[in-house]
Amino acid sequence: MKDHEAMNAPTLSSSKTVTTLREHIVEIISDSGEGAQRCGQSLGSIAARMGNGIWTVEIIPAEIRPPARSIAGASGNRIRIGAGPVTNGGDETDLVVAFNEQVLLGRVRADELKPDCIILLENMWREHADPKIAAAYVETHDKLLAAGYRLIEVPMERECRARVADAKRGKNMFALGMLCSLYSLELQMGREQIALTFGKKDASVVAQNVKLLDAGHAWAEANLEFKFRIPPAQRATEPKVVVNGNTALALGVLASGMELCSMYPITPATSASHYLSDVFEKIGGVVHQAEDEIAACAFAIGASYAGKCTVTITSGPGYSLKQEAIGLAVMGEIPLVVVNVQRGGPSTGQPTKVEQGDALAAIFGSHGDAPKVVMAPSTIEDCFYSMITARKIAETFNMVVVVLSDASLATSQQPFPRPQFSESWIAPPVDQSAVPEGMKPYDWDAATGLARRFIPGQPNGMHTLTGLAHDRASHVAYDPEINEESIHFRSLKLAALQKTLKTPPVFGDPQGDLLVLGWGSTKGAIEEAVQTLRDEGRKVSSMHLRFLQPLPGGVKEILQRFRKVMTVEGNWCDRPEDEIIDESNRRYSTLAMLLRARYLVDVDCYGEIKGQPIKPSTIRRVLTAKLQS
Amino acid sequence: MNMLATECLLELCEERFELEDYQSGVPRWCSGCGDNAILAAVQRLCRDEGLRPEKTVFVSGIGCSSRFPHYMRTYGFHGIHGRALPVAEGVRLARPDLTVFVNTGDGDCCSIGAAHWIHAIRYNMNLTVFLHDNQIYGLTKMQASPTSPRGTKSNTTPRGSTLEPLQPLSVTLGVQNVSFVAQAVDWIPELLYDIVKAAYHHKGLSFVRIVQRCPEWLPKMWDPWLHDPQRIQLLHHERGLQPSAGLATVYRNQLEHDPQNLNRAREIAANTDVIPVGILYRNPAVPCYEDLRRGGQLRTDEYIRAGLEAEFDKFTVWPQVAA
């Protein structure tokens, strides 16, 4: 079944074919700096206002300024527009607007376009003064046409030049105008979007962009023979926030009442700190850019020790560097939130690409027994609320809470209902009440391992926190029994938290032939694939875990109600078809390994580490094969 | 004679602390270890300044010197190797009401934590930092440190260390935003106290290098200096320290040095034939990072809510109003 399959037969409206769709995936790509990103984001916002579901994904080249017209240099945005809610980036692209044929070629070679994709291609290159460029354009144009793509040349540059002096700045709004026409979006909403986007600049900038938007719309109306409609299943009734996952994380930091973010620049985490740097001070917070990742973590630990709960935001390599300091926070029972926006690894890996490779490092990282909480947001909205939850858990249990986002969530946008502020989100002021006589800094509760948090300034609480093994009084432990006692209680805290976690809901029936489990950013794609198979009558369900450490209760009982269980994850697992891979040496994906170890259940896995979000069609294929195996 | 009732009350309210109020446990340093002298000077400082124990924090890294907080009856943070400074900076930024000291050794500060040392000077946060420099790794049992003199025989340099030592004073004085640099030796307690006190009173990062004996691993290292008072160079100035008459008769090698003169301070630091003791540099005008960064707002729920709603406004798409 094709996602973009027409729901209704085409109808003719004002001499044009208007096709009503359930959804479409649109891309706008250019050299970096030509504004394709902004065009895509604006299109997404307009569709969201209409009540459409959207999911936007940034297309980012690895370099800041790759050479113009290079195959690896595509920069832009991909928008999946749906009649109903959209939970992931979907499969291949249905329609693409390209500012040159080389960046387009990059997308074709990456298999990102559907075989019958509509291509709207800037045609200025055909007449280019450099014969090599003109020849390259013609060659690619002819090839793509021969390959079956529905290629339409558009004189974007010429049309823009007729209206403004520098067409390079503003071609993106011409493209937006075309797309408004193509998808039957109201032009007025495009104009409003421009006013919002450029509102801070002077009126002439807004006027010029509106002029180009109108021109693009008029050109498409006059020259294209087709139009689409993606009527929203429901009219938008509530205000929604449209941000990417990193901005959502940063908003969550604001909402959590945390006052300090200590960080060191690293991709793809840094954009969260960029945004925080801009706004945190307005509500009395500080972003501290430390001299390195270790210092960022140690600084956060110092501030947390002093009575605040602090967050440090990083990505894979930075997370590795913080390990020793994280162990110190575990040992000292200092609340701390660590965000790891995962990217491809190991080592420098793929800095701008998505991977779910750090969960084991998060759970088991740091030497010795270092229990910490690990949670993974699975939607943009989740990125926001996870920060509030993480801060609360950190302060309630005096633990380190690791929040695993990833490069896909970081750069994707999905509207979510505007949160209603609650005072309960915010951290209480620093407790400066006197410590009761005789109470010790680690008076671990026998059942839960919890102890009062001692904070400098509290009378009678003086002690030296230490990373050395210590007893209840925080005295260095030379007695072997004491070391074991402290490890025992720090471990109990995880169990205490686990007792408060709800069993995650099952998507689909509570029993059947196959249960697929996932965590983090794969949720939307997994559930979409599962729904499609269920629509075909397959007995497939899924379950998505928000907490990886501790795993919530009740999971084993659910696993046992399915004939087969597997995970779908963005990390490596050995392939059984390899000649030397068998049950005795196969390395499983992260969650599969955890589930097998915890529940003694046979859990298979599918892992993909191509640096792109796993597509629903891929998952569908994998699940179908598993059902038949 | 009549006495006003209020005067009487002030007397009653005034809190006094004794040395015992700052003492915790029996130090496990070797006898003759310079750390003992530093501990004594610092406990005396706390008493004389009337520092409330619960409002005072000692932060350290790892090494012999970093056991220091355990022997203070204040709050203490005995962290991980090399990271005392960033931890202390976090405490400082979060809590302007606390007094924060840092104890770090030559391995902790000048080797594994060197990056933090450089940047701590640049941040210039209000911290009093004691570099316990005994020029050897003690706790890990005698390995050469970055400040070990060339030729130092140790377990990792059995035929003598091959590199010239790093000069902590010169390095510190070379970093932008340096605001207080002093040097003391553990065997002149009177000066050690005066210097520790001057460091405490400086607002900004006060860096005190304390030349310290290690009787276990380098027992004879400082003998030439101990036996020849001429090799101690007393720095004095009306804006610096003014050593007592008694000290001045023992330590006759004196140099008048204005702590405002950075270039002269660098020259003094570069001379390693003698040990300059006193304040090399002091500039109270250098701004503190926490003052530059910390807002003065009271973070009420309403204040946070207003800020958050303003941010949501930026990103909200409102449903299209029905025509």
- Which outline of chain B best applies? globular
Based on secondary structure, the structural category of chain B is: alpha/beta
Shape of chain A: globular
Neighbour order of strands in the largest sheet of chain B: 2-1-3-4-8-7-11-9-10
CATH architecture of the largest domain in chain A: 3-Layer(aba) Sandwich
- Major pleated sheet of chain A: 7 strands, mixed
Low-pLDDT runs of chain B: none
Would you write up a description of this structure?
The complex is a heterodimer of chains A (629) and B (323). By secondary structure, chain A is an alpha/beta fold. Chain A folds into 4 domains: 11-237, Pyruvate-ferredoxin Oxidoreductase, domain 3; 245-418, 3-Layer(aba) Sandwich (Rossmann fold), CATH 3.40.50; 434-500, no CATH class; 506-628, Rossmann fold. Chain A has 19 helices and 25 strands. In chain A, the strands form 5 sheets. A 7-stranded mixed sheet of chain A has the order 8-7-6-3-5-4-17, sandwiched between helices. In chain A, strands 12-11-13-14-16-15-23 form a 7-stranded mixed sheet, sandwiched between helices. In chain A, strands 20-22-21-24-25 form a 5-stranded mixed sheet, sandwiched between helices. Chain A is globular, with a radius of gyration of 27 Å. Chain B contains 12 helices and 12 strands. Chain B has a single domain, classed as Thiamin diphosphate (ThDP)-binding fold, Pyr/PP domains (Rossmann fold, 3-Layer(aba) Sandwich), CATH 3.40.50.970. The longest helix of chain B is centred in the N-terminal third of the chain and has 16 residues, at 34-49. In chain B, 35% of the residues lie in helices and 18% in strands. The N and C termini of chain B lie far apart (90 Å). Chain B is globular and about 90 Å long. Chain B is of the alpha/beta class and 323 residues long. Chain B has helices spanning 5-13, 34-49, 84-94, 106-112, 114-123, 168-173, 189-201, 223-227, 245-250, 262-270, 289-293, 301-315, and strands at 56-60, 75-78, 99-105, 127-133, 136-137, 143-144, 180-185, 205-211, 232-236, 254-256, 275-282, 316-317. Classes of the chains: A alpha/beta (629), B alpha/beta (323).
